[in-house]
Amino acid sequence: MKVYLLVSALLLSLLANAQQAKVIRINATYDTTAMAELYNRIPIGLQFIYSDSSHKQTAGYLRGDYRWNKINIATSNGWIVNGVLTFSRAQLAQDHYRIDLTVTPPQQEPVQTVLVLPKLTGIRFNHYADSVKRDIRYYLNVEGKFSSGRILPLDTSVISFNTSDGQIIGQDLLIDKNDTTRLITVEAWYKPNPNMYLRSVLPVKQLPDPDLPPADLQQKGRKSRKP
What we know:
15% of the residues lie in helices and 40% in strands. By secondary structure, it is mainly β. The protein folds into 2 domains: 115 residues, no CATH class; 84 residues, Immunoglobulin-like, CATH 2.60.40. Strands 1, 2, 3, 5 and 6 form a 5-stranded antiparallel β-sheet that branches. Strands 4-7-8 form a 3-stranded antiparallel β-sheet, with no helix packed on it.
């Protein structure tokens, strides 16, 4: 009798496993508020689609009940810890902004999915002033245009600069106060893809700023203009 019950239990267990829904597709997304355009560490989420049309979502960013510590996952770029992906931006550009994920659900074969991150489509200068003043740092503002529709400032972590005169200090251009240059050429490259290149010619201000009158003279001038 005991043997019969044991065999029955094993058969029921095998039948239950055979009828258990299988993962047929996995969708990968990322948290758009994490600024994946600029930062290399972002929360991601996985949605598991089963053969019976049910689905589950990962904890964390997607607020699901599928815990990350139960997921066996490999990535073609970087690593994932508790639902947070850290990746190489240089490799991301080489891989056309796609990261392959291989997820192995319990008692199943691996399932492949792809995470697509925002692509930089172009860069541009957005100068704050129309000329450069000697002996005053001039900030070189470079903006990136992304496939997400965002336009965001880029810094020296991804942009390199060159100048025909003066010197580059971080992201500032500085011309010596005794320099006689009238025009200066500034170049910028996107480090992960040097084919993205900018060139801008800026005039160097020749005349000094007019001296402002003392505060009491300005006050008298305002009073004299009153009817």
